[in-house]
Amino acid sequence: MSFLTPLYLLGALAVSLPILFHMIRRTPRGRVPFSSTMFLEPSPPRITSRSRIENWFLLLLRALAVCLLALAFARPFLRETEGAGVQEGDVSWRYVLIDTSASTRRECVQDELESALDELLDVFDPRDHVAVATFDQTVQERISFEQSAAIDPAQRRQVLAAEVEEIKATWQGTDLGRALLTAAEMLTEATTDEPAPGLQEVIVVSDLQRGSDLTALQAYTWPENVTVRLVTLGEECAPTNAGVSPVVDPEAAVEQSVRVRISNSSDSKRETFRLQWPDDFGGTDDPQATPDGAVEVYVPPGQSRVVRVKYREAGHQPRRLVLSGDDQDFDNTAWLMQMSRQQVRIVYVGSEPADDPQQMRFFVEPIYSSTPRRDVEIVDWTGAGDQPLAGDSDPQLVIVTDVPAPDQAKAIRGYVLQGGTVLFVARTAEQAASMYELAGTQPMPVTEADVADYVMLTDIDFGHPVLAPFGDPRYSDFTKLHFWRHRVIDLQPFEEARVLARFETGEPAIAEIPVGRGRMFVFASGWQPEDSQLAVWSKFVPLMNLLLEYGSGRSDAVRQYEVGETIDLAGLAGGRPLTHVRTPDGTVTPLPDGANEFTSADQPGMYRFQPGSDSAPDDSITVPVNLAAAESRTAPLAPEVLEGAGVILSEESRPESAGESELRERQLQNSELESRQKMWRWFVTTAIVILLLETLLSSWLAGRRARQAAGEAN
């Protein structure tokens, strides 16, 4: 018998205390005054009855109870039952995770992968249950436990080896936390109904770089019976690695430059690198960088620097920037957003003066101001012979706040039918009736709403692209916006009209009406101070710019995408149909009908979304997709980081000495045996029974002595 906490056995020494107390010879303590003792003979003190053990059986019961309690606290277990635990030769459950993220594209990692997997397959017992999966940002199961069990054990190694040979590295990031969580859950689910599942192990074959994402493990409790073995690749790789990634820079077109971040690995041996423009002028993709315009960058190991690099040729924006000077080149290219300054024309159909703060026209310039990304021109169309819609370049938006003249109405209707966007603001009930003429439908009566004090908005459609950014709980409070006056507009003639917001009285406040290939937005109230608080509302400027971007298909926002991220086509297209995508390798693929997202950005480079299979670049939307910046952090991930996240590492994967590892393994085995046997319960139960017996016996003996004493007294 062995003990998990043997120091508690010292408590058994307490059994000697009653015996010692009983065996101590007592001498008279009191002094009695006496006149003279010279005539008395000396005699030794006589032992009283208290110095003798009256009942040996009662003493043994008490001593036995103390000993049993001491044994129980020492948590005993039998080593001869250790075979019930996990031993060599038992059937095991193994879930193999193979890293295919971008950092494993390094040649030194690929050279070690095949041999590491061969060694791993060689040590598997034919009886073992084995599943294989690859992971990057997602987990792809290649062979499940059920599929593995259906394979002939004699042929399983060949099948696994054939499947492993088909595994190729991707360009995506490394979500190690999600992969470990998935593997642990799959093991737990597979062994739920197994009476003695044996060893349950997750085997991670990876370069284990510091850029791995472990976020998924933060809220996860790791199963106590699942261990993780680490098979580290790339330990012989040259340590110097730096990566380059673009930084959002709205002023790139104005500054004729681009900002990029260079990150140097913490175990790097170099500090100086070069940024160069590839020689891709003239439509070639020659990756050989030229020394013209090269920038020397100093980045200490483990740090990053943001630098601005001027274009090599004014007015020409290169598509990419290349880093050189490190040992690995998989992360040395930054694909750049084409940051041309947009020319935006807005036609305003209204008769109000532009300098009157009580009129809507006064607020148009502040709403649509020029930025480094766009140059805004606002054209006032008063109807005096001007034809701003007749030129070669259509405006991005037409705002109507007055009753258009017949020639204006005809031009506006033709503009919207061809795909233009009109914002119709109902300033008065009489003016609002002209909306039906622009939409080409039967006119309906429009009335002024009866508002006692003010009304607010309700039933806001946050699913619409114009209002979607306000769906975040931080921005979705519209209660501070009050309307003093508004018009009651009947939308029954428009079957496809979409109400984006209503007044709390139920009337439409903002609506979108499809007209031909274009659309007309209708505001039932204006933003002049006598109508509402729209002009001073904090969300009004973003709302109006979102409406412009949605209608024109051009966004002033700059969005950088990484490999594996979902590209928002609805935000890019702004309502324009996009039917095809040209990937970086030149392949043109049709998009699903009505697709609002693109989820197949599986390699870095330029993705061109087109309205047709052979559309010109000017008619397309080009989106650069870059490698995840975290993949450049190729320094090894310390095993202590995984243990800190709650993962239980196998003995060979722990960063401990051989003696510490062996001691810890023995302690874990002892704890497992003791927790399974629970012998302490039997010792405690026996001690309680003995104490009850001792209590009954002592009560009976005390009663007998009392009866004897009473008989002698009589």
Tell me about this structure.
26% of the residues lie in helices and 21% in strands. By secondary structure, the chain is of the alpha/beta class. It folds into five domains: 2-30 and 46-78 and 679-713, no CATH class; 93-237 and 648-674, Rossmann fold, CATH 3.40.50; 242-339, Sandwich (Immunoglobulin-like); 342-552, 3-Layer(aba) Sandwich (Rossmann fold), CATH 3.40.50; 564-626, no CATH class. The chain has an eight-stranded mixed beta sheet with strand order 16-15-17-18-24-23-22-20. A hairpin with an 8-residue loop joins strand 13 (320-324) and strand 14. Residues 81-89 and 281-290 have low confidence and may be disordered.
Topology:
Layout: E1 2-3, H1 16-23, H2 56-73, E2 76-77, E3 93-99, H3 107-123, E4 129-135, E5 139-143, H4 145-149, H5 153-165, H6 176-190, E6 200-206, E7 226-232, E8 242-246, H7 252-255, E9 257-264, E10 272-276, E11 295-298, E12 304-310, E13 320-324, E14 333-335, E15 342-349, H8 364-367, E16 374-380, E17 397-400, H9 406-417, E18 421-425, H10 429-432, H11 434-439, E19 447-448, E20 457-458, E21 487-488, E22 498-503, E23 508-515, E24 518-523, H12 540-552, E25 561-562, E26 567-568, H13 569-573, E27 580-582, E28 588-590, E29 597-598, E30 605-610, E31 621-626, H14 639-644, H15 658-677, H16 680-713
Parallel strand pairs: 3-4, 3-6, 6-7, 15-16, 15-17, 17-18, 18-24, 25-31
Antiparallel strand pairs: 1-2, 4-5, 8-9, 9-12, 10-11, 10-13, 13-14, 19-21, 20-22, 22-23, 23-24, 26-29, 27-28, 27-30, 30-31
Helix pairs in contact: 2-16, 3-5
